[in-house]
Design goal:
By secondary structure, the chain is an alpha+beta fold. The chain contains 6 helices and 5 strands, in the order H-E-E-H-H-E-H-H-E-E-H. The strands form 2 sheets. Strands 3-5-4 form a 3-stranded antiparallel β-sheet. Strands 1-2 form a two-stranded antiparallel sheet. A hairpin with a 2-residue loop joins strand 4 and strand 5. It is globular and about 50 Å long. It starts with a helix and ends with a helix. The relative contact order is 0.11.
Length: about 120
Amino acid sequence: MSLDRDIARTGRQTATDDGCAVLAVDQMVVQATLAANFLKALSHEGRLMILCHLSSGEKSVTELERLLDSRQAAVSQQLARLRIEGLVSCRRDGKAIYYSIQDPKVSRTIALVYEMFCKGE
């Protein structure tokens, strides 16, 4: 019986000859949905730039405005989306609000994007 048919029949994860796990179709759908939502959150130039800046450490909204040469409203809107998606976290210190990357997948993805698109070849 083929691996795909076995997974479809049992609905369980199976290991291949090389030891790699293969997800059942229903698990693949869930994971694909999570991946698509993650990538949608990253697929905006402004949000991507914010995450690139945050990859070097925590930044205040004011710092991000200056780094992005953008209005506070625009930066705050993008930060709100990133916060809703659980990709960044914030803390308040007096009047200043500081943001940092919360999800470790973001740091890994930004590093890969940097390597693919920003590093000189």
